[in-house]
Amino acid sequence: MIRQAFKDLSRLREISLVALRHGFGELLDRTRLWEVLGRKERQEPRPESGHESTARRFRLFLSELGPTFVKLGQVLSTRADLLPREFIQELSTLQDAVPPEDMAHVRSQIEKSFGRPIEQVFASFEETPLASASIAQVHRATTRDGREVVVKVQRPDIAERVRADLDLLYYAARILEAVVEETGVYSPTGIIEEFDVAIREELDFLNEAKNLRDFGETHRDRPRITIPKVYDDLSNSTVLTMEYVVGQKLRGVDLAQHDRKLLAETLLEGAFHQLFDDGLFHGDPHPGNILVLPEERVALLDLGVVGRLTKQMQENLILLVMAVALKDADTVARLLYRVATPDQRTNLAAFKTDIQAVLDQYLAETVTLAKIDTNQLIPELLNLAVRYHVRIPKEYAILSRAAVTVEGLIRGLYPEINIGKAVLPYAKELLVGRYETMGVGITGMRALLRLQTFATDVPMQLSQILLDLESGKFSVNLASEDLVRIHQSLKGLGFVAFLGFLACGLTIGAFISFSKLDFAFHGVPVLGALALLLIGMLFGAVALWSLSSGKGHKISVTRWLERRQRRK
């Protein structure tokens, strides 16, 4: 335990030096991290950091710290509800390509996981990897019964390194919550908890194997999309064996040799099937994860990150698309509020007004659903949700990133494609099955949408009120924010005063104990030593209180970024 504590302290010092090198010294000073490390490190920022954007420096900072932090950046790049657009764009370029692991280590990992020599597992195994990343690398191989496969092998000891870094990330998150103003909205600890779950799932290759099986089942009758078959008898938590699919990555394919329109339609139809029929979608559909096969068919690779939608979530998604197309801010606000977890009471009237302003900005009178620029619109709506303390579930956040990525791919292949036409059948199935919509105009469609959301929202809201009444939680809030702050300050001062009196008493008791030398162990009074230990703990508690709420106001990263931008 002591050895690990020293390792953690050394790693924390390394992180601090990297932060200094990338120009984050001012923030480190404001968080008072040096008090924990025991001394202030000296490290000159890179000369070019003064001319780089904060988003770029943050990406370089994460890249230098290794696999855990690179993965954190990649996860954050899917959360347009948490970070400004320029950070999302910068983090989306994060690559975790690293030098290949030595073949001796790869062999050892395979033999350890299967409990037998590699020659008894595979008939042949290519030493040169097809791809190499921070968590695993991929090799071609042939099974003993002659099947061509690709084998994903986890790097040795990566799980232990990730777990150690996660402990430090939790610690850093608690510091940020204590000293950074914006964390009242973004909850760093909550973000790290989500990341913890995500990366632990990614480290267990059996999760990706399940995703491959599930996708294979949902795409069984869709000949234009191929999902690699997983070989369960040759897979475990650290080794994943899949069918080898021959094709070209979309990132490097010569599009002049292909029917771009048909390829775009294949991707679009596949995306809508995943969202509205399957409730299971690819969470990271970038060009490197898509293979182009003969006859404009495609194969989907790397299913480590997927999103899963319930039937209710699918229905809400269709309603949201329709409400946006109709510029119905009232329904958009209610739907976002319904699917989210509000951190506090939300001013719905102001929320609707701001949503209407965003819809007016991106949806001119002549703009149709087919021409909506989701790359701009979706982040704006998510930023509004954050501003009004409406926390969007991670499935929708992952979906927003995937939707923007797929739209960019499709419009790059065939700019004239009509996305609205593809979503229309799903909207009709939802509404026509419940209401007769033939001959209903735009105003009528808005009314139907509001009727649909009203029918769902009212019983939910009434049930919540009844539950509050039954449990005795129903109350009328007449508190003044100023009075609440004064009350909290007085409670804090009382807490510190109590600790101070207790520490004084223990100090006096310790000196008395030392003077009498009662109950000594090797000449050291046991009671006195315990008293001094308690004093140290009490002063630590006071220091933590002062860090979190005692000394000064919390810093605002937003204002810090604005000041830095003005200096340029």
Topology:
Layout: H1 2-21, H2 25-31, H3 34-37, H4 54-65, H5 67-76, H6 85-91, H7 103-114, E1 122-125, E2 131-132, E3 136-143, E4 148-154, H8 158-179, H9 183-186, H10 188-203, H11 205-218, E5 225-226, E6 239-243, E7 248-249, H12 260-278, E8 280-282, E9 290-293, E10 297-300, E11 306-308, H13 311-325, H14 329-339, E12 341-342, H15 348-362, H16 374-387, E13 390-391, H17 394-413, H18 419-432, H19 442-471, H20 481-516, E14 520-521, E15 524-525, H21 526-550, H22 557-567
Helix pairs in contact: 4-5, 4-6, 5-10, 8-10, 12-17, 12-18, 13-14, 13-18, 14-15, 14-19, 15-16, 16-17, 20-21
Number of strands: 15
Count of structural domains: 4
Quote the average pLDDT.
77
Tell me the distance between the termini: 46 Å
Provide an overview of this structure:
It contains 22 helices and 15 strands. The protein is an alpha+beta fold and 568 residues long. The chain folds into four domains: 2-96 and 165-201, no CATH class; 103-158 and 204-305, Transferase(Phosphotransferase), domain 1 (Orthogonal Bundle), CATH 1.10.510; 309-471, no CATH class; 484-558. Helix 13 (311-325) packs across helix 18. The relative contact order is 0.07.
